[in-house]
Write a structure and sequence with these properties.
The chain is mainly alpha-helical and 498 residues long. It has 20 helices and two strands.
């Protein structure tokens, strides 16, 4: 009997692996049938004793997909290609626009060659800035779409594991995975989460393993993704002696805007699922535990519309799942949750041919308030906006480089202001005089630089998001303070005899 049993086991493993790959290769939308099939597949792996290995392979596959998307965007060739493409398209459009002006009734013909060249350069510069912003926005949007796809797969896997229990042993699937060894690919994430877990604890309470009740596959996936992203950005900023640092730093507004939209959608999905099924699944964002449900091992958690209503993709493509979830939960609202949590769902559902989000319009933040999103662990980890003694994480290297470049542009005009002036008397002896004061044109240049830097926080002008205004204001305040110090020194620190 043993050869036959082994052959059956091999066939079962192949079928389960094929079904798992099929479910993992689906888009962000998760249907009722796909989640039920995922739960059944995980049940097969549990009976085979391979549930932890199968789960970690699925998470590793999603991580590889997300890192591949990061590699396509944050690569020297990609950065150079965006710039070269924007230059060629801008030059072609500038020549067309100049030709129209030449054939028109304006005074373009009356200008000499030098004036026409100057006008052509001005047209080219304006079009180049616009085209480069569009290229960066499109690339960042495509990256965010691919990362969100991978993230949603991990989140759906985590939720099914947390809600599913073996009907015989009553073991929770997520507990089984938590009891296994974390793969080496996620060692950095495990170390970071352990550091956060043991923070502010006494020495006797410090542990070297993650708590089972706080174990989260999604947390490990997200932290490892952010660690890899930070390392990739560090290498890119130092590429060829830092020759691309300025161009790479200029990606930050577009990347931040795209990642904000991605995290907002992810946060909405996680909050909708946990808000409608906390009693059934015990899930919460970044650190979801598990809670056994159902007399026969928790199968009700997969069949209940309350649970399934929250486990949808980030594009909200399931036909009114939120309305059914509210109805099952006893909600008395006349409109479905989808009507008020996704006011711009038609915009979110529309994707370009390459799978990226449209870049012509500015996508608003959906149901999650700005405070909730900015205080979520997903956003804090990705942006790494809190000081950490550990390794850099997420966009922290890119953010630091962006602020450094912003500060450099703001402080450059100050180098040519309040310069020391020299005068000589009738005997040719140098005498000290007051420094040269800036003209009104110098002040206008400072004002123009401030407006230009703040415009980076405008989605329509700089491609960023309005939350960047506070960040950009810090170097602006530093520059104004330095200007005041130089002005005070120029007009007050002189001898009384002078």
């Amino acid at each position: 009997l043993r050869p036959g049993a082994e052959a059956v086991a091999v066939s079962v493993r192949q079928a389960a692996a094929g079904l798992m790959n099929e479910l993992q290769s689906q888009s962000t939308s998760a249907t009722v049938s796909s989640l039920s099939r995922l739960g059944a597949t995980l049940q097969v792996y549990f009976h085979l004793g391979e549930l932890p290995d199968a789960s970690w392979r699925a998470v590793s596959s999603a991580l590889a997909t997300a890192e591949k998307a990061s590699g396509h965007l944050f690569h020297p060739t990609a950065v150079k290609r965006m710039k070269e493409s924007a230059q060629s398209e801008a030059m072609a459009l500038a020549e067309v626009e100049a030709a129209k002006s030449k054939d028109g009734k304006d005074d373009f013909k009356a200008k000499d060659s030098r004036q026409r060249k100057k006008q052509l350069d001005a047209i080219y510069e304006r079009l180049y800035i616009r085209k480069l912003r569009e290229k960066r926005t499109a690339a960042a949007s495509k990256w965010a779409t691919e990362v969100s796809d991978a993230s949603s797969r991990v989140w759906n896997l985590h939720r099914v594991l947390a809600a599913r229990n073996d009907p015989v042993t009553r073991k929770n699937f997520l507990e089984v995975v938590a009891g296994s060894e974390v793969p080496k690919d996620f060692a950095g994430a495990e170390e970071a989460l352990l550091q956060a877990q043991n923070e502010n604890k006494d020495i006797e309470n410090v542990t070297d393993t993650l708590n089972v009740q706080d174990f989260s596959l999604f947390s490990l996936f997200w932290v490892q993704l952010c660690l890899g992203l930070a390392g990739r950005l560090q290498r890119l900023l130092k590429y060829d002696g830092g020759s691309l640092e300025s161009d790479v730093a200029s990606l930050y507004p577009s990347v931040r805007s795209a990642s904000l939209e991605m995290v907002t959608e992810l946060h909405d999905v996680m909050q909708m699922g946990s808000a409608s099924s906390d009693d059934a699944t015990g899930l919460s964002s970044m650190g979801s535990g598990w809670n056994p449900t159902g007399v026969m091992g928790g199968s009700a958690g997969l069949e209940d519309s309350v649970f399934l209503g929250g486990a949808v993709g980030m594009d909200g493509s399931l036909d009114d799942p939120f309305g059914r979830a509210d109805e099952a939960a006893g909600g008395g609202m006349g409109a479905s949750a989808d009507a008020w949590t996704h006011p711009n769902s038609s915009h979110d559902a529309a994707l370009d041919a390459d799978g990226s989000r449209p870049t012509s319009d500015v996508s608003p933040i959906t149901s999650s308030s700005a405070l909730a999103v900015f205080s979520s662990q997903e956003w804090i980890t990705l942006q790494s906006e809190k000081a950490s003694d550990g390794a850099p994480m997420g966009f922290s290297p890119l953010r630091s480089s962006f602020l450094e470049q912003c500060k450099k542009r703001l402080f450059t005009p100050l180098e040519f202001m309040f310069q020391e002036a020299v005068s000589v008397d009738e005997n040719g002896v140098a005498i000290p005089v007051l420094p040269t004061l800036p003209s009104r044109y110098d002040i206008a240049k400072i004002d123009s630089n401030i407006r230009e830097e703040l415009s980076l926080a405008d989605p329509r002008q700089g491609g960023g998001d309005f939350s960047m205004a506070t960040m950009i204001s810090d170097p602006i305040v530093s520059m104004v303070h330095e200007f005041c110090v130089l002005a005070k020194r120029a007009i007050s620190e002189i001898d009384e005899n002078e």
